[in-house]
Amino acid sequence: MHVLKFGGTSVGSVESIRQVIRIVDSHRQQSNPIAVVLSAMGGVTNQLIEIGRMATNGQLDYMELARRIEDRHFNVIKALIPIKEQSKVFATVRGTINELEDLLRGVSLIRELTPRTMDLIMSFGERLSNLVVAECVKAGGTPATFCDARDLIKTDAQFGHAEVNYTLTTPLVQGYFADLSNSSSPIPFVTGFIGSTEKGETTTLGRGGSDYTASILGAALNAEVIDIWTDVDGMMTADPRKVPNAFNIPTITYAEAMELSHFGAKVIYPPSLQPAFARNIPIRVLNTFNADHPGTLVSRTAERRQYTITGISSIDDVALVNVQGSGMIGVAGVSAKLFGVLAAHRISVILISQASSEHSICFAIDPKGADRVKAILDAEFAVDIDHGHIDNISIERDLSIIATVGEGMRKSSGIAGKLFSVLGKNGVNIVAVAQGSSEINISVVITKNNLSKALNALHNVFFQSEARVLNVFLVGTGLIGQTLLRQIHAQDAYLRQEKLLKICVVGLANTKKMVLDPKGLNLEQWQDAQQIDGVTTSLEAFVEKIKSYNLPNSVFIDCTSDKDIVQHYESLLDANISVVTPNKVANSGSYAEYRRLQRTALNRGVKFLYETNVGAGLPIINTLQGLLTSGDRFLKIEAILSGTLSYIFNSFAPGSKFVDVVREAKEKGYTEPDPRDDLSGQDVARKILILAREAGFELEPSDVTVETLLPPACLAAPTIPAFFDSLEAENGYFEKLLSDASDRGEKLRMIATFENGKAVIGLRGVGPEHPFYQLTGADNIISFTTERYKERPLVIKGPGAGAEVTASGVFADMVSIGSYLG
Ligand SMILES: NC(=O)C1=CN([C@@H]2O[C@H](COP(=O)(O)OP(=O)(O)OC[C@H]3O[C@@H](n4cnc5c(N)ncnc54)[C@H](O)[C@@H]3O)[C@@H](O)[C@H]2O)C=CC1
Ligand SMILES: N[C@@H](CC=O)C(=O)O
Ligand code: NA
Predict the structure, then answer these.
(1) Is 513 marked active-site?
(2) Which of 462, 497, 526 is the last residue of a domain?
């Protein structure tokens, strides 16, 4: 025997019923006899409930709604049954609808709707759908028969969620099918969801009702397989509406399916499949609308898997009840009393957690019942509360539960560690935890506003064959920002394949416009990101959006040289958003501010990275941090830290004009957005300050002495154009600097030195014996003398400015966050 069950969407329209008939026909060709169980046409059960409610309230338009149900069935008949055979089917449907209307008239007269009557009203949905579809199949030439499950499935009288009496049911089912096989073996279309009491009163089987019917039949007939046909490709690793990367689970065990479904997976409701599980009958979850997809096979064992976990599921809305007090420690019976009273009031507990100190017990419940639960417990524990043995019973709301489920978690270490670490790095606070000793489910309670972020972050790390997603927000689409975007776009395929990392640029802003899309912007479209087509920029609004999106693995990148923007770093870090920047402003302000940012990042478990603050992409900050962390001590730093000034002094030669060389440096992308910062020595001052701080010294900007190379007229220039004019006017001054040096056989270098707690920057002439003499292009050179590098200093040298090298330094920082978060 092969049982096929089709849900409401599968029989929701003429088109879908056609598809159901095709599937049924294709199974009939196979040797096994088949039984089909249908739900009501999609939406009909809810309409019947609504009709019942309207009739009770005396609203006469319930008739109108009943007609609409009739029409839907008539339309199926018109479309799928030849005209000359339609009238008798119309008549049967009409008769059934008349029966419903009589019943409703009674309800509207007495204005009372008992659960018993409600069950009877609801039964019409399955009765109509099976009746009509069986006739359609017959009309197509395949023997079929309508089967009213009320004649087979016997239950108690708990209307709304009746318990099946297997002793009575099993022989009735077996007898019915034996009789069928003795006749012409028509395919029975069995009404899902309904049964009847011994007295013949109609009952319904509660949540997952039609699945339950299929399972009862399958178990009684010892079916080879039960197919649950629905509208998705089987069970998924997570709810795809919440986790877009969720994918199909090919095989799953009963136990896993149970755990996942308990936590909200709505595809099937495995408790109702218990009868089949108990008899070891495999269940396939298949898609009516994609019938070739293999779906999910639910059975006692699952195939070996690539991942330790099988799925992640959630309950979106729960409340947590906390019972605590010193009087609970070592006192037996508190939990018995607690859960006893909850059971007596039929309150279902979703999750329980108690620390071994026994000082508190907390448990999760449906928030709708929270006030009632509090009142019940307040009354039950009134004396204990009075005596101070138990503190007030508190309720926490707006929480969700996430469950990671999988047989692979059993006896495998590190899963909980990974789970907590991912949530921690994303700033998701865990309110309570529970793991059963079966070890196939770890459940955590978190705040509801973090649910989507947590689900996606967990899915991303536990199902690692998919790329981890880094959600990037970029401010500044000038030279560096634009180059970075181009590099991200060009590396996209490589990062996905080789690093399992997907960079998703979610927000872009410059001084004029900003654009955001939580699903990610199409970088193809942002080739010229300077021309952003968005709304007028407000940094506050941009930052608020980043926080309110609350996406996992978020990174804020500041590619401006703006002073205001850095005011937002702290609150971003505090919201567990990492910050990457080439902008030196934040790290070269007061020491207190510098420390605060470091601390905030550390406390939050996120990253604040700024390798490009010094020497662009050269690995200077990372090297320095490595030395300091491993216990080295810094004695002296001597360096050329300005790419612009390096370029200028390597290119300025007799016959050329100083101002032209500065213009070239700007065109080559070496200068700051405001070149006065480079020429005045300000940029170098910031860099040596940052280096000294990174080397462990508490330095303020005022501790850096800058011997500027500019004459007063240039220093006083109020605007950038005026500055260039002044450079031109002072050409003789610069020529003299150059000729004096070359007369001495020296080259000009702007050298920064840090020693004995003092930083000094000044223009120096260096001879051929000096290690900085040979420097070319826009190179930087940094020499660290430390306890360990005393004889010969550690030297880093190379291009220290320019769009490509700077953007790639920012890129590397960004990618390192991807690895850290993963
Ligand atoms: N050019 C280089 O070799 C290196 C540059 N850097 C740093 O990189 C940063 C960016 O430099 P560039 O790209 O050359 O600058 P840029 O002037 O070309 O671009 C700056 C961008 O920031 C945007 N912006 C400025 N203030 C803003 C605000 N308040 N809100 C929104 N957007 C704002 C501008 O609209 C522009 O898109 C600077 O901090 C610079 O010091 C660091 C290392 C090397
Ligand atoms: N303008 C800077 C760029 C890097 O910070 C320089 O010239 O070095
Ligand atoms: Na660097």
Answers:
(1) no
(2) 462
